[in-house]
Amino acid sequence: MASADSADCLPVFDLTSVVGKAPDEYDAQDEELCRGIAECLHKTGCLIVRDPRVPNYMNEHFLDLLERYFEQPADRKMADCRPALDYQVGVTPCGTEVPRCLVDPQLQDQLRRLQPPNRPTLPTGADLKWRYFWRVGPRPPATAFPELNAEPVVPTGFPDWAPTMDAWGSALLGAAQAVAGLLGRGLGLPERQLQDVMSHGPHLLAPTASDLDCNGRLGAVLAGYHYDLNLLTVHGRSRFPGLFVWLRDGRRVPVRIPEGCLLMQAGKQLEWLTAGHIMAGFHEVVVVEPTLAAVERARAAGRSTWRISSTVFTHAASDTLLAPLGPFATAPGAAAYPPTRAGEQVQRELEAICLRKQENHAPPSAAAAAASGTAAPSPSAKGGSMSNSGSAGSGSSSGLGSGLGGVAAGLGGSSATGVAIGGR
Predict the structure, then answer these.
(1) For 6-411, CATH number?
(2) Buried b vs exposed e over 351-387: b needs ≥16 C-beta within 10 Å?
(3) What is the pTM of this model?
(4) Ranges of Low complexity compositional bias (predicted)?
(5) Is residue 77's pLDDT more than 90?
């Protein structure tokens, strides 16, 4: 019997009844929707949402565009890379991002506590997948974090790039903002409080791209076990399966997004704002048998075998103070989430996964570091090198391999040698 997937484990929350309504117009069914969303995120960290304003054809156009872009030679894509901006706009090449589970002892302890059927596939080095960050929505007129709010990078030779990316990114962001409003109401927070936190945030349309011709090996980890650092992550449908999420009870569940729906998952910022009442969810992308079957179908039809994720990261505004809201400020464990500017929280997370290099920035003041209380581990790892084929070295020569070896031994499990993962 096939194991249950996300569509079996999670209810679908249909937003149709609340679209176009002011909160003071909600009826009893709408109020139940708000409470249900809050309860589901608390219990599982995930949601499946149907928003009638998000048409499937826009996702298809987006996937077509990104497949064309990533099929270009690596050197042409590298013209769109902005490492001085912490890769927060433009392309991030393979071999750059280091998975958080390799450098975070607390996360490694969490892995050891998972039951064997629910343990992730472990990586040994820097990330094999590419990524493109495209800003969505307005940015603040002034900010202390300009690198997190930079102008977008438009690749040459793609006249339909900006309108396609803007349309799809705005649709996903709109769905997330609607859910944030319903969630806030379900949690008993003041009207629009969560949406106001998101206003002028550094929201990103953030597709990943994995070349399944090069890296389509059974068990290959395309994006490893990690949480997202932002507020809410929105996943549209990909053309290739392999995404797994962890529910709060520790179950590892393959994702199946019903047609016309979106998967949303809580990020670290939402955990911060609720003092852990809603915990950041974990996920990974692994090549499994259904992935390989989809690759064969794509080859037979003459279609691309690049796996594109349809992802938006929604954020708290960079200059906003992250702190537990409303009743969560006095909840047990609230002290673990000290007042911290969202931009500082993001910077520390980026440092931990090697997307932000200290040599590119002035070090933060001791006062700022003390105020944030969110110092991340200092990874000794460096990303593997990139080749024109879109693959990367294992990156284990700089300490990643030995670090993971201890984790794998402690888990009694296997690691995907030479296969890297992502953590952003």
Answers:
(1) 2.60.120.330
(2) bbbbbbeeeeeeebeeeeeeebebebeebebbbbebe
(3) 0.84
(4) 364-391
(5) yes
